[in-house]
Amino acid sequence: MFSTNAQDYAKEGNIEMGGSLAFTSTTAVTNGKEEGKPISQMVIYLPLNYFIADGFAIGFITSFELYVQNESSLTGFTLGGSAGYNFIGESNLTPYVEGRIFYNSVFQSAGNADVTATGFGWALLAGIKVQVTENVLINTGLGYAQRRFKDSEYEGVSAGSNIISLSSGFLFYF
Fold it and tell me: What digits encode the pLDDT tens for the residues 123-133?
């Protein structure tokens, strides 16, 4: 019978990579006030992390999103860095917390109007990773993010979004 060795995960020098699919609820924010109803969409996250100490990882994160409704659409991506801590225990369950800072770009098309906006954001996540084979984990987490945009057409307007997410995916480590 195959037995996983949880003590090998999240050790200094390990590399962790994979992908997650997140269900998100995104609310637009203008000048500090939420506007309109939240939109629900799926976002793909692709992390790459390096453990600089047992349990503590720094890394690179990117994400892709697409939202289409009637004649409007939103396409976006993020590129950023992350730092997280994995609470190593004696079992194959590893709770974790992670912070992210990222650059984001969104292209929105609605009827005859197209807008591209860019900016920066941050996110906090917490969840659990379950080791299912020697080098494979399933992760599930909850997150909150804020992103802000700048668009030259709207000088003096602070625009962005608040995002709540539930994600799940696979991670490989070696």
Answer: 999 999 999 99
